[in-house]
Every structure is written in C-alpha cells, then in structure tokens.
Amino acid sequence: MGGMGKGKLFFIVINMLAVVGALAAGLYIYGVAGRFFARDVVYIAPRINETRLHFPLNDVEILNLNFPGYTIAPEIRGNIFISTGIQETSAYVFYTDAAFFGMHSMDFIEGSYWQGRSDENVMVVNEALAWRLFGATENIAGKVAWIGNETFIMVGVVRQDPQARDPYTAWMPVSQSPPNLLVSALYIRPNEVNPLAVYQSHDMLRFNLSRNPDNYSIVDINRLMESLSVRFRVLLYVTWLIALILLSREAWRRFASRGSDRYKSVVAVGLPLLGAVLSMYILLGVNDILLWLPNFTHPSANVFQAISAVGILPPEDYLPYGLRRLGALSRMSNYAFVIGIVGLVNLLFSLRFRGQQ
C-alpha cells in the first residue's frame, strides 16, 4: 500500500473491521434468537391495545372447535397483588393454558407448568418474582403465596435474562382469570408443519371471529426468524461479490502488466474458476432469498418490512418475554446490517479513490 497515508489506512482497516464485525454479529444473533421462542407459531395481538380488539374466551372455544388441526393458546393479561405473609408485591400475570408453555422457549430453573392441574390454584413465577417473595430461586416448588384470601401453590420457576430487567411476572391457569378480563393475544400452532398457517390465521379472524385482520399484528415466528438469516446472508453475498470484483480487478491488472508466465497461467485458470464458484453460490443464495420474499405483485407486499421485520410486532409493552427478546435481537440485527453496508460503501470509495491515484 505504498504511498497510502496512515489516516487512510486506519480508515480502511476500521471499515473492514466494521464489515467483519457486522457479519459475525448477524450470525451470532441468528443463533441466539432460537432460544427465546418456539418455531411454527403464529402470534396474533391487536396493533393498538384497546379492549374492543380483545377476544372473549368463547372465541378461543370457537377456533378450537373449527380447527382441530391447530393448538390455540390464549393470553389474558392482568395484575395481581401477591403476598407470602413476610413479603408482598404487585406483579404482572399471564392467565393461559398448558399449551402456552409449549410455544414459548421457557427455561425452568425448577418444577414445571400445571400439566393436568388447570383448575387448581397453581402458579409459575419468574426468578425475579421468586426472589422478591421467597429470597431464593430454588426449592420454591410447593411453597405457597396468597392473592387476597386465596392460597396459590408455586409449581415452577422460570429463568429469564437478568440483563433484560424483567418485571415480576407470574403465569396462572386461565380458569383463575377474573371474568372482566379479555384475551389480549392468541398463539396458534399447527399440529403438523404448515407454511400457510399465517394465512389460515387471517381467515380465522375474518371468517370465524368476524374481525378485521388489518387491526391485528399477525406474526409468523418462522418468517421473523428467517428474516434474521436473510439480513446476514444479503450482507455476506454483497461482501463476497465486492471482494470477488476487487480481487479480479487486481489480479487482471497484475496479469496484464508484469506477471510471470507461471503467474499468468495460475490466474488464467484459477480466477475464472473461483469467480464461477462464488458467483454460482451467490446467485443460488439470492434466488433462495427472492423465493422467500413476498409476492412483488401483491398490493400488500412490503419487501422492506419482510427483511427488516420493522413494524410487524406490537409495542414492546404488549409482548411476552420471548417476543420482547426477539424484537430486541431483530433491532440489533438491523443495526449490524446498516453498519456493515456503511462499511462496505466506505471501503468501495476508499479503494476506488486509491485506484485513481
């Protein structure tokens, strides 16, 4: 890099590190995201948290009756004031059923959920609430706490990321929910893999519950997870393509100027072969992404939203722990993608300017 100033060399190195770091971050985020939510689930919740958009419990019964090939779990949100006689606090509560826990990737420190005990006064708590009430996160199963004058038995403790600063949270059987509360979200999972489940969910709302699907966030968790992979792959393919072009240009320049016969033979055979292999890999990968994207001719198709996942989830305050973490990871992935693209653009301008000197 003779003649290149230290400042420019530093700028090039920083941008190269930005690209490599963005690629590494994208791969890491995609790997981590699978820990927080189960696949093959469709999440349905109002875009705006208004009572008129919530569901009565008999809507869940209607869907269960008409769609035996799906498992449908309700989520009713509320607040409780819970006491052990020594400690007391308020907490968020999710009233739901046992199927809910099969759709969320929950890590139980001990115990489990209420399998076969949906009519009893039982409760699962997160570790923050367990620590607040009992001063520990282990040996909690079997202990009791009071909500009003009723006694509830702890059956499980869920580990959640302490860095997320999650509020005190409990999960209770839907049979324990107050009658004035409505279902604020639905989790729908086909009993067999069905890539069209998200479209079936639109029909469930429109034709079975007489609801306008446009008022709801209907999130295919599989597509949300795949969008993380797509962002990483797009950045990787663009990086490889640019590297291939720059390598080819530099090799051809040396080939045409001062290369030895042996060097020219290696370049003449190796460079086209390398270019063909990488180009085929990129083209196949791009083709996979194009097939994954929504139909461009459909009026509701939004390619930016499909890749970035921006705006597909309701506000974070409405979301359970797993979806909050997925939303946060998706934002981190978008930041990494933008940093990688900026790094690539800076490198291109730097190298082009150098080539003109």
Can you give me a brief rundown of this structure?
The chain is 49% helix and 19% strand.
Fold and architecture overview:
The protein is of the alpha+beta class and 357 residues long. The chain folds into two domains: 6-37 and 223-356, no CATH class; 55-183, no CATH class. It is built from nine helices and ten strands.
Quickly count the helices. 9
Beta strand %: 15-25%
Helix content: 40-55%
Name the shape in a single word.
elongated
Average pLDDT score: 86
Give the helix/strand layout:
Blueprint: H1 6-33, E1 42-46, H2 57-66, E2 70-83, E3 88-96, H3 99-103, E4 107-111, E5 122-126, H4 127-134, E6 144-147, E7 150-159, E8 169-173, E9 185-190, H5 197-208, E10 216-220, H6 221-257, H7 261-292, H8 303-308, H9 321-356
Parallel strand pairs: 3-8, 5-7
Antiparallel strand pairs: 1-9, 1-10, 2-3, 2-6, 2-9, 4-7, 5-8, 6-7
Key words describing this protein structure:
357 residues; alpha+beta; 2 domains; six-stranded mixed barrel; 9 helices; 49% helix; elongated
